[in-house]
Design goal:
The chain is of the alpha/beta class. It folds into two domains: about 260 residues, TIM Barrel; about 80 residues, no CATH class. Helix content is about 40%, strand content about 10%. It contains 15 helices and ten strands. The chain binds flavin mononucleotide. The site of flavin mononucleotide (FMN) has 28 residues, from strand 3, strand 8 and helix 10.
């Protein structure tokens, strides 16, 4: 076991989060990560819209597949009231069903923290730089997931080393998201001083993920240079594989969309339209084997992914590599500082945060 503040907060054996993925988080993939020692994260729109489970029943189904902790992803979308209400209901149901670890993205996660911390739960927030880190800190989050420029989905702009330096002094554990495809990437992130990793792309190339075979094979064959950032799907850069379709339609948003996105009011409508349209497009292109509009999200971690293999095998290899790299002793994560050797000042604990009350 490699113990860090992440493993304590998540109730996992390995400091590894199986990141939420729309539309790739199916109800078999999430528990497979938890069974293998990490923590799998439920993506509520995947569970309900793609895999057609009522939210509570979907969680209960996952619960029949593992008794280890699982987490939930809450995308905080401020612009739509009905979406916000739906997300609040999902968070409440997740808490009622015993979920105590939440990964939030976008916006201000204060309302999630208030509900979750009230029952002793934990919230980690996805951030791409110090500015977002400070906003999340202000909302009372317990940890950061530092999304770097190598990540799949909505990637950041900074390299993992630089991002950790920005966030290391905020007094919260920092998890590395992006570029973790092989055991050596996991070890490198822990060595840098991260409290763990969040990975997505590696988990698509597994039998437990129900995405199309063509998508999985494309990940296995790709190099880091095959990842491009397209604005055409959600209006903001999204990391996807460079397929003939992506090349044909280009990477920039069209002129009308760009005009809409420039206006203060118009922007809201355009974002809503993008959000809705992307749900259908990504579902179709990732799941349907015959889909021709190939938008396959993936990160630069494809460089370390060479074969489709079961989640348990992937995580076992990661765990073994970490144990070999950090023999028992003061340099093993968790045995001294909460972080392994840090490039910056060790994290300071802030009163009231991450205290025993937050742990199960
Ligand atoms: C296909 C795909 C879908 C994603 N969807 C989401 C999502 O719905 N919510 C979220 O917070 N992050 C999402 N992410 C980001 C992942 O949770 C994770 O941070 C990222 O995959 C890490 O980079 P990696 O793919 O290089 O491992 C997605 C990533 C991928 C690859």
């Amino acid at each position: 076991m490699i113990a860090t503040r992440l493993t304590a907060d998540a109730g996992a054996e390995l400091p590894l989060i199986g990141g939420a993925m729309y539309p790739c988080s199916n109800p078999e993939l999430v528990p497979a990560v938890s069974r293998a020692g990490g923590i799998g994260i439920v993506q509520p729109i995947s569970l309900t819209f793609v895999y057609r489970h009522a939210f509570r029943e979907g969680i209960r189904l996952i619960r029949t597949l593992t008794d280890r902790p699982i987490g939930m992803n809450a995308l905080i979308e401020a612009s739509s009231r009905s979406y916000r209400r739906r997300m609040e209901e999902w968070v409440d149901v997740a808490l009622e069903e015993g979920i105590r670890f939440f990964v939030t993205s976008l916006g201000k996660p204060r309302w999630v923290v208030d509900r979750v911390a009230a029952v002793g739960g934990i919230v980690y927030h996805n951030v791409t730089d110090l500015r977002w880190g400070l906003k999340a800190l202000d909302s009372g989050v317990h940890g950061f997931i530092a999304v770097n420029r190598n990540a799949g989905g909505h990637a950041g702009t900074l390299l993992p080393e630089a991002l950790l330096v920005e966030l290391a002094d905020l007094g919260r554990p920092v998890v590395c998201a992006g570029g973790i495809g092989a055991p050596e990437d996991f070890v490198a992130a822990l060595r840098m001083g991260y409290a763990g990793v969040q990975m997505g792309t590696r988990l698509i190339a597994t039998p437990e993920c129900l995405c199309s075979e063509a998508y999985k094979q494309a990940i296995v064959k790709a190099n880091a240079d095959d990842i491009v950032l397209s604005e055409r799907i959600t209006g903001v850069p999204l990391a996807v594989l460079d397929t003939p379709y992506v090349r044909r339609v280009g990477l920039k948003a069209g002129p009308v969309a760009r005009w809409m996105l420039r206006g203060h009011r118009r922007k809201h409508w355009m974002r809503t339209l993008y959000a809705l349209r992307s749900l259908f497009r990504l579902r179709r292109s990732s799941i349907v084997p015959t889909a021709t509009a190939d938008y396959w999200q993936a990160g630069r971690s494809v460089a370390g992914i060479h074969e489709i293999k079961p989640v348990a095998q992937v995580l076992e290899e990661f765990g073994k590599a970490a144990i070999a790299a950090f023999p028992p002793g003061p340099s093993r994560p968790g045995t001294g500082e909460n972080h392994p050797p840090l490039p910056a000042t060790p994290a300071k604990k802030t009163e009231g945060e991450n205290s025993e009350q937050g742990r199960r």
